Amino acid sequence: MRPGIVAVAGEALVDIVPAPVGGYFELAPGGSPANVAVGLARLGVPTRMLARLAADPLGERLRTHLAANSVDLTHAVAATEPTSLALVSVDADGVASYDFRIDGTADWQWSPGELAGALDPGPAGPVVAVHSGSLALTTPPGAAVLRELLAAAAAAATISYDPNCRPPLMGDPGRVRAGVAELLATADVVKVSAEDLVWLLPGRAPADVLDDWLGRGPALVAITLGGDGVLAGTASGLRARRPGRGVAVVDTVGAGDSFSAALLAGLHRRGLLGAANRAALRAIDATSLDDVLDDAVAAAAITCSRRGADPPTAGELAGRWQAARRGS
């Protein structure tokens, strides 16, 4: 794996998920940015988590989970507020929905001083990319602080962004659209789901959104289409449509986060992250783009095939490809 750290900024919360039997609930580590951090680390990318982790038992569980997956917590904040919670419901098709308990919780209380030195180099080299999204960039008061971090980081690092819309908490889609437009001018890599777009930009076709967003600044935009794969494009004019991977879906929790992690891991492996490589990222060739997208789709499919936000390791992802090739 090439040197260079990917920093992930945002929420690390606890999912309360239905148990397989008995009508009970289980506690599981979650939060979109935290899931991306775990996914990156499992794929061999040096990963730093910028999160506010509570000192309560649930916060300690999150800290243990991240550390056990080799996520660097050197710059995580020891927060005095309680851990955020997400109540997860899964329908008959395995599609997850969320009901959050976040008032006054740890994830949203960022102050600028807490991020001092957060992007300093580490043993694995400089920070070459910063990823964020979801509630972290829309929930005050900390959202403004993290947005400022991304703007400052763009001078040296690739900026990766996933709106990961949560309508019950994000409020007016018009206000969210304005924030998305602001971040599109900063971001290099953008991942968004077709489900997000139904709420954010109702009536707009994914292909139309793809062209629009690529004209606003990003080098690469990927629109995930659930079981139908992904539609993607680059600022240089490439367009790609990659198919989904057939799996028996257990649930969709964390699937989009696994896609983001594998997408960034593929770009990291090819030396396309970091401000110095911005031109090379914009000029990615069609074969490389297809390969990166296929890995990301496979990572999401693997996550859908098991319970909760459980992204694949590099070995599992490689094994999935070998099995797919044997079946072709």
Automatic annotation (TrEMBL):
Record-linked InterPro entries: Carboh/pur_kinase_PfkB_CS, PfkB_Carbo_kinase, PfkB_dom, Ribo/fructo_kinase, Ribokinase-like
Species the sequence originates in: Pseudonocardia asaccharolytica DSM 44247 = NBRC 16224
Family in the record: Belongs to the carbohydrate kinase PfkB family.
GO molecular function: ATP binding; fructokinase activity
Region (Disordered), start-end ranges: 308-328
One Pfam family, short name: PfkB
Keyword Nucleotide-binding: yes
GO biological process, one term: fructose metabolic process
Keywords of this entry: ATP-binding, Kinase, Nucleotide-binding, Transferase
SUPFAM superfamilies cross-referenced by the UniProt entry: Ribokinase-like
PROSITE patterns, per database record: PFKB_KINASES_2
Domain Carbohydrate kinase PfkB: 7-311
The name this protein goes by in its record: Ribokinase
